[in-house]
Amino acid sequence: MHTASLSINSTNVRNLIALGSLRTGLNTLSRLAPRLAMAWAERLFLSPPRHAWPAAEQGWLALAEQGELHTVGLPVAEWDGKPMRTYRWGEARKGKIALMHGWGGRATQLHAFIAPLTAAGYQVVAIDAPGHGASPGKQASVLHFAHALERLVRNEGGVDGLIAHSLGGAASVFALSSQHLPVGRVALVSPSADVAAYARHVGRLLKLDNDILAGLQHRMETRLGMRWQDLNAVSLATTLVQPALVVHDQGDREVPSSTGSALASAWPGARFTLTNGLGHRRILRDQAVVDQVVAFLAH
After folding, report:
1. The whole model's pTM is what?
2. Other beta carbons within 10 Å of 62
3. What are phi and psi of 169, to 5 degrees?
4. What CATH architecture is 68-194+233-297?
5. Tens digit of each residue's pLDDT (9 = 90 or more) over 161-174
6. Element (DSSP H or E) covering residue 256
7. Which PANTHER family did the record assign (predicted)?
8. Looking at the predicted structure, is the pLDDT value of residue 212 above 80?
């Protein structure tokens, strides 16, 4: 799964030699200095990858009205008060739709939705979470994402709809549940859900022993002021009232489609669509998916 705050996974670590070195280093350090091993593992968990904007996204950057919102009240001092880049496209003749990207992503990854939404009379607003896109910072977590979304939505005085991808989906569920954000309809694409399950997955990938993984969990929960189990999107979805659509691909190698199915089942009245052959990111550019999401939000 691609959730809360991890950047070390089978997609990002394509070089098996580098992965082997990480495993060896972490396991050696865990025997000699467990606290240092936990600190290193935590840094890996909280450090998102950054990628250059492809040409298709650069055009949408040029068309956007860009601005800034600042983080306020994040649980760790060095994370607080940082600027976050915001984007705006189109005019709000019929309303506003917010976009929330995923881990290691940026707002313009969801560019395929912008043209049909603005053509339908919606203004599209988006934000780069801390440590992502054009926003500064080197670390992030699901709480950063939820905070970024809350700042964006409240700055707009509420939005008529929301599209969120991957970790942005989990963060959206948390923000909707805990902050009661003024959001109309919600479309989640390839959403993640469970921090603890993903941590176990990455722990296995890096061959961390159970003691190190438990210590890492305690360390991160203390810093964030939040238990991982309290961030479980499937559990939180049972409290939500917004009309929702969840779209997930059965071949997703980063977040299994069973996650999206479980989330839709837990969310009262939510609809679930299973696609095939689109994976975790190409699904964002598939015309049939885009058409379905836009039609759902414009209902």
Report:
1. 0.88
2. 8
3. -70, -50
4. 3-Layer(aba) Sandwich (3.40)
5. 999 999 999 999 99
6. none
7. ALPHA_BETA-HYDROLASES SUPERFAMILY PROTEIN, HYDROLASE
8. no
Give me 39's structure tokens: 């600190």
**Which three-class secondary structure string do you get for the chain?**
CCCCCCCCCCCCCCCHHHHHHHHHHHHHHHHHCHHHHHHHHHHHHHCCCCCCCCHHHHHHHHHCEEEEEECCCCCCHHHCCCEEEEEEECCCCCEEEEEECCCCCCHHHHHHHHHHHHHCCEEEEEECCCCCCCCCCCCCCHHHHHHHHHHHHHHCCCEEEEEEECHHHHHHHHHHHHHCCCEEEEEEECCCCCHHHHHHHHHHHCCCCHHHHHHHHHHHHHHHCCCHHHHCHHHHHCCCCCCEEEEEECCCCCCCHHHHHHHHHHCCCCEEEEECCCCCCHHHHCHHHHHHHHHHHCC
Residue in the structure block whose two tokens are 């250059």 = 52
Domain extent listing, the chain? 16-47+198-223, 68-194+233-297
